[in-house]
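re the bet — no i am not wrong, look at it urself. input seq straight from the record:
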Amino acid sequence: MTDVAGASLIRRPASRRGFYAAWAIAELRGWPALSVNMSGDDISVAVAGIEVLQLIDDDRVRLCLTRPVIDRIGSSLRSCGQVSVCPDGAWVILRLHPESDLQLLFGLMSVAIEAHDHR
């Protein structure tokens, strides 16, 4: 068992797809700056009414970091195997499979919140 934010969780086998995306959305629901929106099969997260995260499938999300942020940290993102920068230069796709990818998502979500709070 692992203690995450005061909750005891059972470690799931890495082959159990979807667990990490569900875990991420459950965690993000508790962030005061965010609103989680569910419409049918679509799940997204917004900051101040601006969509910043879209759940693509069970183990990938699109995250809007903004073009200025990606211009600043893009080379580091591109060298990371879990992240790919979208052609528009404002969004990235992040793979959520091992637990470490969740920590990366939460860190990048903090960057996205900051970027969108200053728009």
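see?? Residues 14-117 form a domain with the Aspartate Aminotransferase, domain 1 fold (CATH 3.90.1150.200). told u. also Residues 1-17 have pLDDT under 50 and may be disordered. so pay up
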